[in-house]
Every structure is written in C-alpha cells, then in structure tokens.
Specification:
alpha/beta; Nucleotidyltransferase, domain 5; 5 strands; five-stranded mixed beta sheet
Length: 132
C-alpha cells in the first residue's frame, strides 16, 4: 500500500493506541506521535451488556476504549490535524471503530488493515503497510 507523506497511522487494539506520521515520500517511514488520553467509557456501543453473547466486563471495556479512540481520531480529523488516516486494528476493534466514525473521518480514511499490530516495532508496522 502506498501511503502519502504526512498521513496519520493509528495502530489500535482493545487497550492500546499508538499514533505515527508517515514522513517518507516514496517508502513508508513512520515517526511516533504523541498519543492523546483516551477517556474511559463504561461500555462501547449503546445497548451492550454483559450476558451470554458478551460474557464479561473486559469486552465492554475494550469496546468503550475503541469508541474513545474513534472520538479522538474524529477530533483530530475535524481540527485538521489529520488529512489522511490509515487505521490498523484488531478485527473486533476495527468493527467498533467503524461504528464511531464521523462522516469526515470516513472521507479521510485511506485504508484499514484488520490486524493486531500493537506491540510490534515501527519497522514491522511499516512492512505490514507496504505489504497490504
């Protein structure tokens, strides 16, 4: 996948967010950015509760974190801090993020990669982007 210079890359799972900026013109070259505080939310999507299909509070906490990340990324897009956005997230987290996107955030998405790459090195993340 080609990634424009200046694109924001968000690497997310149910507990962590890492942000990078692509500083490369030809190849993907990621530079770590400061990560905003994500406020804790009691649960993710409205109407979710612990039960047979959602057995524990950990799932609700992960869903809530994903919605908090969506809010933070929406804010970055709406305040013109991200002109292009690539999201790399665990598949379940990616599904939750999609529920929270603002229409402007959706318009600025240049791609999504459904993989859990949190905890990977910057080089491994750049390689995954180039191979996508």
């Amino acid at each position: 996948m080609k990634l424009t210079k200046g694109a924001l890359v968000a690497v997310v799972d149910g507990e962590k967010l890492a942000l990078f900026e692509n500083v490369g013109a030809q190849d993907v070259d990621l530079k770590a950015k400061a990560t905003p505080d994500i406020p804790e939310r009691v649960s993710g999507a409205p109407g979710r509760y612990s039960g047979g299909a959602n057995p524990d509070d950990d799932t609700q906490a992960e869903d809530g974190f994903a919605m908090g990340v969506a809010d933070a990324l929406n804010h970055m897009v709406l305040t013109h801090k991200a002109e292009a956005l690539l999201v790399i997230a665990a598949p379940k987290t990616l599904g939750q993020l999609r529920k929270g996107w603002h229409k402007e955030t959706e318009a600025r998405l240049v791609g999504e990669i459904a993989k859990d790459l949190t905890g990977h090195t910057t080089d491994q993340i750049a390689t995954a982007i180039q191979n996508a």
